[in-house]
Structures are given as C-alpha cells and as structure tokens.
Amino acid sequence: xxxxxxxxxxxxxxxxxxxxxxxxxxxxxxGWTPGPGGKGSGSSFVRNVAMLRQVTLNMKVLRDDVExxxxxxxxxxxxxxxxxxxPIANVKINYGSSVDEMSYLNAxxxxxxxxxxxxxxxxxxxxxxxxxxxxxxxxxxxxxxxxIKPWLLEQVFAKISEVKACSPKAIAMDVDAAGxxxxxxxxxxxxxxxxxxxxxxxxxxxxxxxVKGVMTVEDAKVAIDAGADALVVSNHGGxxxxxCESTIEVLEEISNFVNKRLKxxxxxxxxxxxxxxxxxxxxxxxxxxxxxxSHMAIGGLEEGVTMYANKLVNEFKExxxxxxxxxxxxxxxxxxxxxx
Length: 340
Ligand SMILES: Cc1cc2nc3c(=O)[nH]c(=O)nc-3n(C[C@H](O)[C@H](O)[C@H](O)COP(=O)(O)O)c2cc1C
Fold this sequence. Notes:
Layout: H1 4-13, H2 43-52, E1 55-57, E2 72-74, E3 77-79, E4 83-85, H3 91-95, H4 101-115, E5 118-121, H5 127-139, E6 144-148, H6 153-164, E7 171-174, H7 181-186, H8 195-205, E8 209-214, H9 217-225, E9 230-233, H10 247-258, E10 263-267, H11 273-281, E11 286-289, H12 291-322, E12 336-338
Helix pairs in contact: 1-12, 4-5, 4-12, 6-8, 9-10, 11-12
The chain binds flavin mononucleotide.
C-alpha cells in the first residue's frame, strides 16, 4: 500500500498544470483560472487559507478519557464526520490531469463512501461534463450530491429532472458560477439567480436544496426566503471574485444570522481536521474540502481519497478529544479564539 507522501508524489507526476505544492495555499497558482488557482491576483484563494491560521484552538484535557462521537447526518445519509468533498469539475483542463474525468469521479465517490463520507459532484458546459457525474450519482445516490450550474431556468429544470430520477438525498446549485471565467470563455450562458428563480428551482427539485456560494448575510437571507434547506458559505475557492473576503471571516456572521433556519456548510482553504473543527466552532454544520481531495484522487485513485478522508476524520476526532468535545454539539464558540 502506498503512503500518503507517495500518493502526493504520484499526483505531482500525474498533473501538468497544478504543481502540487507542499501547502495548497494558492500562492504558486495565483491567477491560474482556468487552472487550479484563484481568479485575478489570486488573493481570494490565498486569503481563504491564510485566515484559517488566525483561528486557534483551546486545549482542554483534564477529564475522563471517553470516546468521541463525530457522526453527522446529511439529509438522511449517516456520515462518520461533518466533512464532504467539494465539487471539482474538469480535472483535465484545470489540473492537466493524466487521469481521465470518469476515473477521477469514480475514485472520489467510491473513496469517500469507503471512508463513510460524501462527495459533491460538479457540472460543466457540455453534455459529457454532466453525464459523467450523473452516472456516478445514479450508482451512489446516498454518497454523492449533484451540483448544478446556474444555467438558464429551462436547462436547470431539464437537468434537475434527470437528477431526480436518481433518488437524490439533495440537489445543490453553485450560484456563484455566474462569475466563472471558463464558462464565459466557452460562451455558455449561466445567469445570476433571484429569490423567485431559486424558489422555483427548490419547488421543482422537491428534495433538499443547497445554495452554494453565499458570502453575505444579504444572500443568506435570499437563500432562506427561497426555502433552501442549506447554504454553503463559499467563494468557489477564490475562483469567481478577486479580493474577496475569506470564507472563515464571514462564516460566524452568516451562521448567527441564519440561526438554524437552514444548514450552514462552508468551504475554501480547509485542509485538515483542525480546520474543520474551527468552522464548526464558528457555526458551520459541516465543511467541504476541494483541491486536496482531487489531488489524492489523481495521485492514488480510490485508495488516495480514502486515505485522505480517514486522515481528516482522525485529525478532527483528535481535535475533539483534545478540546474536551465529546459530540458535535459540544464544539462551540469558546473552543476557539479568532485573531482577525
Ligand atoms: C479546478 C476546480 C474546479 C471546480 N469546479 C467546481 C464545480 O464544478 N462546481 C462547484 O460548485 N464548484 C467547483 N469548484 C469550487 C469547489 O467546489 C470549492 O468551492 C473550492 O474548491 C473550495 O476551496 P478549496 O479547494 O480551497 O478547498 C471548483 C474548484 C476548483 C479548484
């Protein structure tokens, strides 16, 4: 069995664009979109990672040694921890991956399932970019979530009809993809969505609906008013707006405003179980992780994904243990300090 480091080396060898840096922090790939990087100066990706370092944990160990329970429910799917793989599409164009898209998707979905986690799947400009993740979703409806791009409404409804035939636990939409450079370059129409649009989409989907790409209280209000079941605090990994706030900076304000009216997930720069713990302490219900999961899929297929997933879960549980949190409900604001 390969080691974690060997899989990272193999990922580096299997990618011609992504440099597989020691820390995946957006520095080397500033402006590489299309590519793995952040838009423009790349500062939004860099800030996502950097600001997580400004949150520290409070160690608390003087108590009995009991097993912690990190289990998490995602709309009826039981997961071992509140950690999910974020949707990442077009690994050929964005990473220069020598692993083809379907092998990458299979590795992600099956690898997450094996570790007791779940993977969001992306969507793209052409039919294939939707069909490939959909095929995997049909096979693993309890362990994958389709994330539809904010196309014009007729196209959205057509795609959702196909997803509904797979008995999905939930359907997501990355509403911030209205700002994606790649789609603009390909000339495919994505559109900003209003509260009425989102309400129609939610009604048509008739399953839990997740709005991905919320960075302000105002947009959180729209998601709530539209009847969404969850939102993802996300700036698309810094790929849609330069000089954007980091997701960890806006998370607490948004989760306080939401006040449990819907689930709050977050992504952007999260790399370790400790990072996941910080998000939960600041009000998130769960965390999505993007680039590192795709590196491990490209470097080690299913085995790589499972290894990274297990590593995250173990790190997260270790943080719970070392901060005196026995259940997810115990992870509260006083478990962390925020230095921004
Ligand atoms: C190469 C690449 C492709 C992506 N494709 C999608 C996509 O198809 N749909 C989507 O909702 N988000 C997409 N994202 C954004 C991720 O889902 C996620 O929001 C972001 O990567 C999280 O930040 P992290 O990679 O720093 O963990 C993509 C990100 C990257 C880097």
